[in-house]
Structures
1.
Amino acid sequence: MARPRSSAQDLALIATFAGFIAALGLVPAFSPFGFPVPVTIQSLGIMLTGAILGARRGASAVLLFLALVALGLPLLSGGRGGLGVFAGPSAGYLIGFPIAAAVVGWLIHRRGAPYSPVWGFFAMVVGGIAVLYSIGIPVTAWRADLSLWAAVTGSSLFVVGDLVKALIAASVAGAVFRARPDL
Amino acid sequence: MTTLGLYVPGNSPLHRMPASAKLLLLVAAAIGSLFVTGPYAALAACAFVLTLYAVARIPWRVLLVQARPIAWFGVPLLAFHVIVNGWAKAVAVVGMFVALILLAALVTLTTRVVDLTDVVVRGVRPLRRVGVDPERVGLLVALGIRAVPVMVTVAAEVRDARRARGGAGGPSAYLVPVVLRALRQADRVGEALVARGAGES
């Protein structure tokens, strides 16, 4: 899947996908129940960025996105931003984002072409759910002074939604790899 | 850039303090909060941070915008701790971290994005030894800041085009074109960088 790319193209991809992740949080796109409910698809952007750019560039794009948030741009879904979000109870998920993208990218690109949506889904679940939650949950428990069990129960509410996102991300990645075999 | 950032222009002592000093004090406060516990300390910390907001002349409206997301988890968390551990513990835990979040937000509100970027570029200089190029980091931040409005426009255009056609096709019909246009945009930016001799190393 990897064609040698120049360093300038890497920079451009990393910067553009940092913007892509931001756009997914800022442009409310879905009304899944027929009326406008803001559904955050930013975590979907994290998985997709890892899948398409691979481990190193994907994690760099996510890190750049977090750097822009830390610098004070209101880019997290719901228009949150600034240094404050890194002090909140969901800080662990933010820290886990680049690692999640790296794991998704590593798993998908290690297997190489042709892309398999089933393997893609597996990679999204491992990186975007298993790895992300295992970093996010302990931090929530620590910052919010909850028992680990309470934090696990609270987070389990989001698993179904994240499984749906992983499914969508796996299928979108497939369509993108078909349209751009040069990736 | 000021329209996209959260910066509130002003001339208070907090606005004039160097960005690096503000960041160091914030880190010190975050570490300090781990050692100072108890409901009175938490309330004192909240009162102190609110005083700083007054010193920086941050409008109430802006403070409320910063505080609103805290309510989302702060209120349920407060309720949980009141029920399980009692009032004192609830105020100590939630109060301290409301104070910290508002303090971090205050650094953001009183510091220009450019000044924070400079701190980042200076801060990564020691990492040169492990292969991080500070100039590249600075260029990436600048390119990233530019990429945000570009990609927001792309996403909005794709969404509107999809709505105009009746909105059929589910999330993939929206995401696939956005990703493909992102890749094309990256190609253009990459070519522009090569043409200017940037990023070759």
Note: Chain A touches chain B through 62 residues (CB under 8 Å).
2.
Amino acid sequence: MSGLYIRMDQDFVNGLVDKVIESNTKIPWLKNLNVQIKDEGMHFQADIEFMGEEKRLDSLISIKNKPQSLSQGSLVLALSGEEGIVKILQGIFLLLSRFSGGFNSRENNIEIDLEKINADPFIKEVFSYMKLDKMDFKDGEILMELSYRESD
Amino acid sequence: MKGSAVIQIDSETVRAFLEKIVEGNAGSFIKKIFDSSSKLRFYDNKIELSVLFFKFYAKLVQFPSTLCGVYEFEHNIPAEKLNISKLPQNIKIKDNKLYFFVPENVLTQNLIIRSMKISDDKIYIELTY
């Protein structure tokens, strides 16, 4: 197969979430963050223990819009499910938007606009030739396929 | 294997990419080399570019334990003769060694390289956390 191919499994995504988020945040009632990748999207779950009761709160992240290339277009993710988690994710993206115009949150979507991410103009140009052919949540895996094309 | 991410890229894509970089950045001599090169091959942890009767190569000899850090290659590129003035900042050439540096950030320092190989005209990297 020709192109750039990236595959991540669910355990990998969970391991990364543990390492990057859980080990850097101290919220006493947040017991665990968990990711489940299904065909319909990525379930982002938080296990919360509050006043002696433990609950798993489930939100769903699905792909609404894919960028055309590594530097063109936007990745738009639609959020649904547990409103508390949805609002936290939206809040994080709103905070990031104060630092970079590339991030935003509108209605129930969070958005990364690659065209507004600051990068070297030459890198941006070269990245624009890496077209995103495929980006999918598949049972237990995230798959991405990119190929080199100078036009669409 | 479970708990892993796989990144794979083939030589044709890398060649198209390099051609674009050379077009925008390098001196005319390097452009000529690229235009007259017949083939870019990946095998035996080597990236090899054939130009007329010459074969230029860079062989991966060492990679860091995490994604960020220094990747060390052995090469036979006559760098001083090519007058490479505009090398990207993260590439350093010293004698027969070429060093490729990947900067540290919250992602690159948390991703561990489980395996990395250059063969069958592909670069293959398996990451874990």
Note: The two ends of chain A are 19 Å apart (CA to CA).
